[in-house]
């Protein structure tokens, strides 16, 4: 291929991949097989490597390879990015209508548009020659930050526009994080011992401020476009016409939009949207009411803060006032102290609430929450109750500032806050509270499956000093344990027969395979699937001490570029397991196992049927599925497949359940993995169709989109 051909081919590939990204990520209507997409992607990577001079700054490959930057340049917005006037009462909306009647030119006629007010970060996108050249945050409205590199990683944003789009175009909209993406991101940050975000909006803003686009690329961000920018939007008579054009040009637009002839009709749509607002994939903090006829915008004008042709209506937050009776501090399995608010029971959004999370010491301090205070209770993300402010005017002199315990409330041991962590931890490895939770985990159904050992029995065994380490279960006198009092609230009750059942379950646990034991120990970062991956690479438990395989995973991670291989074990997990066995506790644990004569083995799985429908196929399950993951894992194995915890070059299928992040699927595709949905998996497994998931649908107005 000569240079001219290479340039042409690169251009064609960029256009074709961008077109298919749009079909896949914005319209959810892929038209080519995944393998075909992957082939083009690989070809583009290879050609760009050979001809770097022809690499397009908007190439789809940039999304995963942008270099970190030093800081953000400033961008001046022309015209400024204004805000919206807010109102909270229906009466305010009627007044808005009256205001328009007064201000609009005589004889003018208009319609209303109702849209969700998405809680994210407002953003301007600039296209020159139909190519994305700049993305900027709102900032103070006049000047914002140039976050182009970060925004390029967002798949639902078109990088190039079709020929019928204006050559110079600026559009404005909202970058947001879905609720589900937010929950997953926080879970991952939490697992890694890092600070979590308060809500999806903070997570979105925080992600856009990162200096390394590679990390941004892993954040589940999306964008909808809802407003004209300074260029290319003048020709539209109506807002709805403009939005329809944005949609045609490949932008994601609001999934719900209604037009109304009268303010009364508009208000009824605002109510309708309010009733369904918790069913959207993203958080909505209100509705936006706009005049549809853009010709009136100039006539109506704007204040320095906001246009006169629109209003934001904020839904009444679902909140209730109550009294904080006490703050209890719970100690988790890894020693993390979690403060919990004990409240005067109160009804909130349909349920009676008496406890709420306070997250951590910082949250209590920043809101100055004190025992005895009257507080506002809200449903955070409308699911978990949280305290949202103190009614300081009701505070009496007796109410003193809350002091977070400086020692563990259970064992009195030292509490430390590790660098960069919000969480305070009890670092006493002998802390009974930690031991109780570890014991409960150790006996859990997916761990050693000692079902008679629930939370309460774990508490009693530790309290009575019968168990000082989880392995003590293997030397308990279960016959004597029959007379243990396990009654509650002063009513005595004997453990009885259950003690013998527990003995049998403990005996059976000796023979459980390596992965179950590894999970049972509760090493940070070692969940069930990770434990299975690690177990698959080791013969027996005692091989984990100083494991060469785990060391190789860590060493491989330190390699650069092409030298780095994709290994089936996560590096954090490998480090964590090595550290466990290196610790004094790990060494003692191993020694005790030796004394007990327990050395769990790798499970020799029944040989996968060689002629099964998934024979030899590596499969990774992700997202929300209608059956528990373990069930699908079993079915896949019965069909000859191999379940993996993360996508590697050996993964044939990524089974993407509801709400799977686009980054995950894109990464999988780049590695040659086919991305399939649950329906397709069920077809491959020869199962009936899954029941429809019980989530509210985002509404799409047929005529427009
Ligand atoms: S129109 C001149 N439409 O709300 C500003 N804004 O509180 C016109 N927002 O800064 C904005 N959803 O970030 C508009 N459907 C929507 C919106 C929306 C969210 C944000 C936007 C704006 C803020 C004002």
Task: Characterize the structure shown.
The chain has 705 residues and is of the alpha+beta class. It has five domains: 3-62, Orthogonal Bundle (Helix Hairpins), CATH 1.10.287; 74-314, DNA ligase/mRNA capping enzyme (D-amino Acid Aminotransferase, Chain A, domain 1); 319-442, OB fold (Dihydrolipoamide Acetyltransferase, E2P) (Beta Barrel), CATH 2.40.50; 512-604, Orthogonal Bundle (DNA polymerase, domain 1), CATH 1.10.150; 605-705, Rossmann fold (3-Layer(aba) Sandwich), CATH 3.40.50. It is built from 23 helices and 22 strands. Strands 12, 13, 14, 15, 16, 17 and 18 form a seven-stranded antiparallel beta sheet that branches. A five-stranded mixed beta sheet has the order 2-11-10-3-9. A four-stranded antiparallel beta sheet has the order 5-4-7-8. A hairpin with a 7-residue loop joins strand 17 and strand 18. It is globular, with a radius of gyration of 29 Å. 2-(butylsulfanyl)adenosine binds next to strand 3, strand 8 and strand 11.
